[in-house]
Specification:
It contains 23 helices and 22 strands. With 681 residues, the chain is of the alpha/beta class. Strands 12-11-10-13-9-14-15-8-16 form a 9-stranded mixed β-sheet, with helices on both faces. Strands 17-22-21-18-20-19 form a 6-stranded parallel β-sheet, with helices on both faces. The protein starts with 15 loop residues before the first helix and ends with a helix. Bound molecules: adenosine-5'-diphosphate and magnesium ion (MG).
């Protein structure tokens, strides 16, 4: 008898080559194979009459073969099989290309289920056949891997299903009853061999539930664990904060005040804060994080602030120095520079000063993690654009200390509400929706090629009157034509830079910026752009995150259709950072109607959340990079957009925990395994 845990090579017909190929997609045991689910199904049970066959529409027909002809084309080996087929509704000619073996199978008088499409062949409407079956069923289609095609999987899964009855049920009975779920063994059986569509749906629901249930349980356990950790209390220094805000060059928005206060109150608790500050680009998150930092510093603790890029780390460092009049004991640490207050010092020196608690607030990039810096009194960890840091790296900093620092992450990625709840179920969220006063709505236009020179004239005028412009391109260099046929219409930074500099704006100062440049060069360009020494910056998406240049009023995007709306919205957020009118010009040569519609949304909406939701509907969840790191990245059956099932799974997880996970040992083991595998700790 086949054992559920035996290696796949014990299965008859799985040789060494197949075994190697299966290892590539992490399939090693019989159980693994059973969890290799079809990605779609051919439903042969939904039969249409011949009369209703339409050009280019797929259909299944049930027919009798009336006549059959073989035709050899000029090119010798091409063989076409033609057959007259009929059902009660009529007749049509069916055609098979290049499948000579079918000649023996498709005998006159035999009955077949055929799947295919209506098409024109020699000016005649015919039925172009893709596949044929003797019996009507729902056929599972598996993703192929290398030389292993769907048929191979269908064959070995059939064998593996013999061990299906060894799979143990791990869902508690009461959960299965409450949410009307079928048993695991049936679900696995029917997902591979669905007897009917309703049964298939039940199998899918059960397996999807399992995925969401396990993740929910893991997140809840994580939260319990975190809640057991102690944090050091930082009392709000109310008077100091008041004085600081009163001396700012602007008035805080209500949302900024509310968010800052939520954060500061969180840190008065002895439970570590775990909060996400979400606010559109330009909404003023930095100052909120600075208020939180001041609160911690006044309590004689240290603060670490992690930025995703060197440019951003420097910007935060400069901003903080500016707002605090160079009075803070602040350090800057990136891979290429170390500063204490406004002086350059050696890295070693800086790290020593941090360890001796002389440096109170550290602004850093990944370099902080790489240098294993010890921050003895760390009590607030701020992470800008959280999704670029893995969960693992975060815990590296928090380390094995007895107390945990408070944790604040900031993001401009406008994640829709339902999604953020699912992703960050154990996080508290503060949202800044209001823009600082006096900001004008950025005028956004989708521009056709015919208006290009008009727009260049407009940009010229803006620059002459002292403003600056960004031009964003999807690529760094021109693709090799042979390699990527589909990238040919993508503009490259290098080519665009040359063109702009030589032909379009030869009187202006033009520079370029892209990810392959050395950090030093990038810094220099950014600095010069910031100081107004450069008029036009031609760049890849590297300017996407955070850079604050108030004098820039033009954002021009080439190949705008190559970017997601959320990303375009981020680009747009690079301008409109002062009270001057700003403009965003989106160029696209795509003729696709859907693409056009998607981009039109940019003209109408300036709410990042709404744009993200449109993106989500039109392009799917892959656009949110945060999903990958949350444990939700490996869903096979479930969708995190199935809020209904997600809610049920969460509820089920809470109920199970309240009855004690230890009472369900198989489940307990499964959750532990998942948590370790996903690095959720
Ligand atoms: P983001 O949320 O994108 O990180 P920043 O914190 O960089 O935004 O703020 C964008 C710009 O707005 C900065 O120049 C900042 O000084 C300014 N700013 C922040 N808050 C206000 C406010 N309440 N009123 C006016 N300007 C503000
Ligand atoms: Mg920012």
């Amino acid at each position: 008898m086949l054992d559920i845990n035996s290696k796949i090579e014990t299965i008859y017909g799985v040789g060494e080559k197949a075994q190697k190929e299966l290892a590539k997609i992490s399939l090693a045991t019989v159980l693994d194979i059973l969890y290799y689910f079809p990605w779609r199904y051919d439903d042969w049970t939904d039969i249409k009459p011949i009369r209703s066959i339409r050009i280019n529409e797929e259909a299944v027909v049930f027919v009798t073969i009336k006549k059959i002809f073989i035709q050899r084309t000029m090119r010798k080996r091409m063989i076409i099989i033609k057959a007259k087929i009929s059902d009660e509704s009529g007749e049509i000619e069916a055609i098979w290309f290049n499948q000579p073996f079918l000649e023996r199978v498709l005998t006159v008088g035999s009955k077949w289920y055929l799947v295919g499409k209506g098409a024109f062949f020699n000016q005649k409407k015919i039925f172009s056949v893709k596949a044929q079956e003797k019996t009507a069923q729902i056929v599972p289609i598996y993703h192929s891997s290398g030389f292993l095609k769907s048929n191979f999987f269908r064959r070995i899964i059939k064998i593996c299903l013999g061990a299906n009855n060894q799979i143990s049920e791990y869902l508690p009975d009461f959960v299965m009853q409450k949410f009307r779920l079928i048993e695991l063994q049936s679900a696995i059986n029917f997902i591979h061999q669905p007897a009917s569509n309703p049964i298939l749906q039940k199998a899918k629901r059960r397996l999807a539930f399992d995925e969401l249930f396990i993740i929910s349980l893991s997140l809840l356990l994580l939260r319990q664990k975190r809640n057991r950790k102690k944090a050091l209390v930082a009392k709000a220094p109310v008077d100091k904060l008041k004085i600081f805000t009163e001396n700012l060059p602007f008035k805080l928005t209500n949302d900024q005040r509310r968010s800052a206060w939520q954060i500061i109150l969180d840190m008065e608790k002895s439970r570590p804060m775990n909060r996400l500050l979400q606010g559109d680009v330009g909404s003023g998150k930095t100052i909120v994080a600075l208020l939180a930092s001041i609160s911690v510093l006044e309590n004689s603790f240290q603060v670490a602030w992690l930025a995703p890029t060197e440019a951003l780390a420097r910007q935060h460092f400069d901003t903080i120095n500016k707002f605090t009049g160079n009075k803070l004991a602040i350090g800057l640490l990136t891979s290429s520079i170390a500063k204490y207050k406004d002086k350059k010092i050696s890295k070693v020196e800086l790290i020593k000063n941090i360890a001796q608690e002389k440096v109170k607030i550290i602004i850093a990039t990944h370099a902080l993690l790489a240098n294993k810096v010890i921050i003895p009194k760390l009590n607030l960890l701020i992470v800008d654009e959280q999704h670029r840091f893995g969960v693992k790296q975060r815990s590296q900093l928090i380390g094995a200390k007895k107390s945990s620092p408070h944790f604040l992450s900031m993001t401009a990625t406008p994640i829709p509400r339902t999604l953020s709840l699912a992703l960050y179920g154990d996080l508290d969220i503060s949202i800044i929706r209001e823009k600082p006063l006096g900001r004008k709505k950025i005028i956004t236009e989708l521009v056709g090629e015919n208006l290009r020179s008009q727009k260049y004239n407009f940009i010229e005028k803006q620059i002459t009157s002292g403003r600056q412009a960004f031009i964003i391109c999807p690529l760094i260099e021109e693709p090799e034509p042979s390699k990527s046929l589909f990238d040919l219409d993508k503009k490259s930074v290098v080519a665009e830079y040359k063109k702009i500099k030589k032909k379009v704006f030869s009187q202006k100062k033009v520079a370029m910026l892209h990810g392959k440049m050395k950090p030093k060069e990038k810094q220099k360009v950014m600095q010069e752009f910031k100081n107004g020494k450069i008029d036009i910056l031609v760049s890849t998406a590297v300017v996407e995150v955070g850079i604050d240049i108030a004098n820039a009023t033009i954002m021009m995007v080439e190949g705008a259709d190559k970017f997601g709306l959320a990303q375009l919205h981020q680009f747009r957020g690079r301008v409109g950072r002062s009270d001057r009118q700003s403009y965003c010009f989106l160029f696209s040569s795509s003729a696709n109607e859907k693409t056009h519609q998607r981009l039109m949304a940019m003209e109408q909406l300036d709410d990042g959340f709404k744009l993200a939701e449109i993106d989500l509907k039109m392009r799917g969840p892959g656009i949110f990079s945060g999903i990958k790191q949350s444990g939700f990245g490996n869903l096979k059956m479930a969708s995190i957009f199935d809020t209904m099932l997600l809610t049920e799974a969460k509820q089920g997880a809470e109920l199970t925990l309240s009855r004690g996970l230890k009472n369900f040992p198989i489940l307990d083991e499964k959750v532990t395994e998942f948590t370790q595998h996903e690095h959720l700790e």
